[in-house]
Amino acid sequence: MRNNPPPFFHRFFQWYCKPKLRDFIEGDLIEEYNERIRTFGKRKADFRFALDVIKLFRPGIIGRDKNFNRINNLAMLQNNFKIAFRNLQKNKVSSVINIFGLTTGIASCLLIMLFIQYELSFDKFQEKGNRIARVIMEYSFDGAPDSQKGNFTSTKVAPVFSRTFPEVERAVRISDLYTIVKHGEELITEKEFLHVDSSFFDLFHYELVKGSVGKAFHGINKLVLTESTAKRYFDSEDPIGKSLLIGTTSTPYEVVAVVKDYPTNSQIKFDFLGSFSSMGANQESTYYNANYTTYLLLRDEYALPTLQEKLHPFMEKESKGTGSHMRFFLERFSDIHIYSPYDAFVPNTSLGYMYIVGGVALLIIIIVCFTYVNLCTARSVERAKEVGIRKVSGAAKAQLFWQFIGESFVLCVLSLITSLAVVGAVLPFFNQLVGKQLTFDGLLNPAFLLGAFGVTITISFLAGAYPALILSGLQPAKVLKGVFRNTNSAKWVQQSLIVFQFAISILLIVATLVIQNQLYFIQHEKLGYDREHVVQLRINWDMPHDKAEVLKQELNAIPGVVSVSRCGNSPVRIISGYTMAKGWAENDEFMSVNANPTDTDFLKTTELELVTGSNFTIQDMKDAGVEDWEKKQYHFIINESACRKLGWTPEEAIGQKMFVNRPGYVRGVMKDFNFKSMHESIAPLVFFTETTGSVVLVKTTGTNIQETLDAAKEKWKTLVPERPFEFQFLDDSYNRLYESEQQLSQVMNVFAAIAIILATLGLFGLSSYMIQQRTKEIGIRKALGANLSSLLVALSGNFLRLVVIAILIACPIGYLAMKQWLNGFAYRIDLQWWIFLVSGLSALLIAAVTVSIHSIRASRANPVNSLRSE
Amino acid sequence: MKKYQLGEFEEIVMLTIGILYKEAYGVAIKKEIETRLSRDVSMGAMHTALVRLEDKGYIKSFDGEATEERAGRPRKYFQITALGKKAMTYTKETRDSLWKAVPKVVWELNGIFQ
């Protein structure tokens, strides 16, 4: 009877023991074991066997024949590297294609990684970031279905919340308004001017350079500057205690401190901090008048949900009987930049945008990997003999596999080095493209380099694995016997990769074309108003009516000016919210509506068309201009949507009583026009006669615009000395509405171009190898009388078929994806068939040209040369 | 300066190999030590000693027959090499010289203090 020792320990011993010692120690063990069975019985023998195995687990016994292996590995490794470099040199074309491709791929990936890292790094430097919450307000009126929501709050929120809720430790109110600052004789509109409560410094990070921000910042007209701003205004002088003249009233603000410039990856951005009390806006009577952002410093990071729970019941009580509903929501400070739909003081990042850009980078990496895979498998024919010889000389499959992986690794590392240089070179352009301030420093930190290296290793593995498997699996007998051809499975893989590459490229072309068409559509759409040659100027909103009239007349007198109007907003973007009601009675139903104070010249200046009724009259302006609020009477011009909402036909509407801010009569009905972005459909809109407004629109003839502007500037200096002459063309501000789409379009342009170039390079390399393999075939065809064109068809047809398949795959996907994107616009182009036709044809054309370069060369070669040698 | 390194257990193993002469293989060596010195020898300790001795060149091995009892694994027989013999003699000589250097009185006086 044969007894077997416990299998687990037996196998364990076989696993760890040096191969050289294994047999005879094993023999000893088994001999002992058998003897023990005879003397002690099986159980005890089993136990002793296990004990012996465990006791044998010691340094002298464990191992894998180190001596022998170590030397061999080193030599092999050196040899592998040598072979890798020789191969790179030998196949210059494919090496260049691969390195170029990989460099582009890795560089794109690095740039995207930088971009994403930058976005994720936002606000991370704020020490109390996880204890800060931003207050979001939502309000609606009784009976009205729609509500308004945003990061606006009134000055009441901060004091009430910190008094009522123990969770709130401190609160800060922030107001950001463009503010005029006097620098010597010059007026400058400063865009990064925040008015903040002194608690700002309790919530947010700052580094003091000079002065102090404690008590010194209490009180009105105090100012904190950043270092660079201080340098801008005071040069090298010490600014502490000195004053700057702020605002149209030229109020002196005392500089109490200078702080370090704020990091760019912050949702809070400022050059100036003025004390909040200087604005004189502090009030606790209403939650409306919500023009400020409120941040709360909570007791600890877990207090946010508890506080949130208390807010709704509290506000329920507060807004009882006011005829409106008001609710407050809290947003965690550190989540705002990435997740919040409401911008902070710098625009938030859009997750969708990040996904698109990241996705495109991934697609490029895939294309690059596929190119590499294709070139390598195509070249396997060349290297088959090498593999055969190596195998005959005793190379194991695993060794060969790692050799080829090593080759792709060498290539990837070379590409990584070049791509770092490329990234450094193109970073400024990329910054422009995505509108960020990424720095090369971000690239050089160890974590990032480690990440980059990780990507490189992954790529070298992804791209190298398949060719390595194919090559290391070759049968030496077959390979060395004679002619070797690519295996069918390899061909199949190559072809599907080509299809995939081209499908991705076509997809990107489709996306680019659609985005550009939509942008063109937006930019050239007739909006119902004239935005060409219209210049927008800013005045004080409360400039007296008669003074404004003088300004208008003076500007109108300049040659080249067609008309001038004073209003609240330009027609490009009207978002100011009001409520309207049909009739004057108290109990009439209120609806929220966008409204805009305008004067008699607004329609003329913007060329908006009336459907029926008439323009405002000078008398209308006078009715609205009376000092006594109770006696003020408005007149209205409403758009068709408002007309429908109020339940009138345009003809009925004329002369009707209605209420917006003050009671008044409807004068006219204008055609619907787009006064927000094209993402939204047209909403009700009301123009009302009001004698205030901070915008002056100047319509010019468009000829000699510079002269006109110069003349206007001269008059401005005397008429509006308190403000700088700063103008903006309406079509510029219109285009600014679509900045993110324009950015997307540019990014897509670049990446689509890269993708198609890479795919083409891949096809170029692959076709050259494929055709090289067929030189004999071509020779025979030619010898039998084939002409050039039939040869071209024979050689290129196969590749073109693949591209056609790619088109068939890409078009439906592209259709669905772009349909989804276009759904984000209320006004959009149709997805027309020609977009797909153009994308497909261009891919086909590029493929045809690429392949035919090789085909033509091969077909023109003398058949004697290819057939002579066997 | 030590010319030859030979630990106590290693010396025992070598001596046993010498005793067994042509029959010195793993299990036999182990048994011989166990019976002669009446102490337990673990397979691990012995094999490490054998590996080390072979590395030092004091013993050499050759494969023997494979038996049913060993499930087909060959025996490995050990033999003392010339170097091994020198090492053993050297160890014995150093031992002896040390023995000789101990004054006789040590042995005699032992009784008094006991």
Can you walk me through this structure?
The complex is a heterodimer of chains A (870) and B (114). Chain A has 28 helices and 24 strands. Chain A has 870 residues and is α+β, with helices and mostly antiparallel strands. In chain A, α5 runs antiparallel to α24, α16 (488-524) runs antiparallel to α24 (739-773) and α16 (488-524) packs across α27. Chain A starts with 6 loop residues before the first helix and ends with a helix. The mean pLDDT of chain A is 84. Chain B is an alpha+beta fold and 114 residues long. Chain B has a two-stranded antiparallel ribbon. The mean pLDDT of chain B is 84. The interface between A and B is medium-sized, with 23 and 22 residues.
Name a few traits of the molecule.
heterodimer; A: 870 residues; alpha+beta; 24 strands; B: 114 residues; Arc Repressor Mutant, subunit A; 2 strands; 61% helix; 13% strand
Write a brief structural summary:
Chain A has 870 residues and is α+β, with helices and mostly antiparallel strands. Chain A contains 28 helices and 24 strands. Chain A starts with 6 loop residues before the first helix and ends with a helix.
Fold topology:
The complex is a heterodimer of chains A (870) and B (114).
Chain A: H1 7-16, H2 19-40, H3 42-56, H4 66-90, H5 92-120, E1 132-141, E2 147-150, H6 157-164, E3 168-176, E4 179-183, E5 186-190, E6 193-196, H7 200-203, E7 208-211, E8 222-226, H8 227-234, E9 243-246, E10 251-259, E11 272-275, E12 293-298, H9 303-318, E13 324-332, H10 333-339, H11 351-392, H12 397-434, H13 441-444, H14 446-472, H15 476-481, H16 488-524, E14 534-538, H17 545-557, E15 561-567, E16 577-582, E17 591-598, H18 602-606, E18 610-613, H19 618-624, E19 634-639, H20 640-645, H21 650-653, E20 657-660, E21 662-670, E22 685-689, E23 695-700, H22 705-719, E24 727-729, H23 730-736, H24 739-773, H25 775-783, H26 788-822, H27 833-860, H28 863-868
Parallel strand pairs in A: 6-11, 8-10, 17-22, 19-21
Antiparallel strand pairs in A: 1-2, 1-12, 1-13, 3-6, 3-12, 4-5, 4-9, 7-10, 8-11, 9-10, 14-23, 14-24, 15-23, 16-17, 16-20, 18-21, 19-22, 20-21
Helix pairs in contact in A: 1-3, 2-3, 4-12, 5-11, 5-12, 5-24, 11-14, 11-16, 11-24, 12-14, 16-24, 16-26, 16-27, 17-22, 24-27, 26-27
Chain B: H1 8-20, H2 26-37, H3 43-56, E1 59-66, E2 74-80, H4 82-101, H5 104-113
Antiparallel strand pairs in B: 1-2
